[in-house]
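Continuing from yesterday's entry. The apo prediction looked reasonable, so today I'm repeating it with copper (II) ion included to see how the binding region is handled. Same sequence as before; SMILES copied from the compound registry.
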Amino acid sequence: MRFWIMLVALFMPMAAFAHDYKIGDMMVMHPVAFETTPSAMSGAGYFTVTNTGDQADRLLSVEADFPRVMIHDTKVTDGVATMFHIDAVTIAPGETVALTPGAKHVMFMGLNGDPFEIDEKIPATLVFENAGRLAIEFNVEPRPDAHAMDHSNH
Ligand SMILES: [Cu+2]
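Holo prediction written out below.
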């Protein structure tokens, strides 16, 4: 009995924070950003996008109230991860693309003394080539692993 109560307690926060969005054939699941250090100049955002249609679409940009918002990808060379700007994310028909730590992500740049804090909501607009503009909110959550890639001097 106690075991199940603990399980429910563990999973409830996830369920409470899960949030999905849809426009046209694009389904966007659980946009999340991780808390940053107080002096961080940038923060990263992640979500999963599924193309439920039969035509490819592209995420062209992400708009939010920061000096610069970019779409980044990550590559690892000789064990060193570096991030680079990409112009768009293509989502093939039926495909699910996950923006996750260590892979593609949204980079919010120029936080400038206003860090991401847990439970804060970051409003943003995803701009898809075909589906159009989708207003979403990134939930700021605790960093799952303090040793995960640090964006603070990025
Ligand atoms: Cu980045």
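Comparison notes:
- The chain is about 10% helix and 50% strand.
- The helical segments are 2-17.
Will overlay with the apo model tomorrow.
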